[in-house]
Amino acid sequence: MHGVGSRGNSQNNPNDINKVDQNSAIRAIKIGAWNPAVPVAVFAPQTNNNWNPNQLQNFIEYIKSNYANATKTNRIYISGFSMGGFGAWSYLEEFGYQNSLIAAAVSMAGAPDGIENVEPLKMMPFWAFHGDKDPTVSVNRSIQVVASFKALYPSQNHQKLTVFTQDDFDGQFHRIDNGIYDRTFFNKNHTGNIFDQDVINWMLRFKRND
Question: Can you give the pTM of this predicted structure?
């Protein structure tokens, strides 16, 4: 799920759809840095507003119904950058683990002020990424959200946080979504969970059993 800068309505403005064809997983595919252990279908929806949890649920149902040959229903994953990261967390909060349709989630530079009830998400694998010097969305949001889970479930290792601390972003401390998927940041300085595994292959470790 994209951030604010990629919002659009391709039904009214067909070129708007090109805004989602630039970053994150799509960019990694285009530059040949996409390396999942098995073939993975990627869907990049677009919104002209904030991400709506119920619309995301409907979109996932649409994928399941219309791309059944490309979809393993127990291995559906979501990720989002900035506003898309907020969208991922909004979806998780709305549906919890039991009623969601996903097996794992990744957020990049986007998180809410907090999670009111972490219990419904205790089984949900997630990996939150953030830049320590992010001027757009405070890194403290991701830190506090993950801390709320660690406080209650300290032994769980399927819920992770990685914070990038380096200075060589050319001032683009918020724009970390490219480096997550194309492995640019593998060797960058960071705190929290070590970034030593391709994100898509980390996702593939998880599947739903319900």
Answer: 0.95
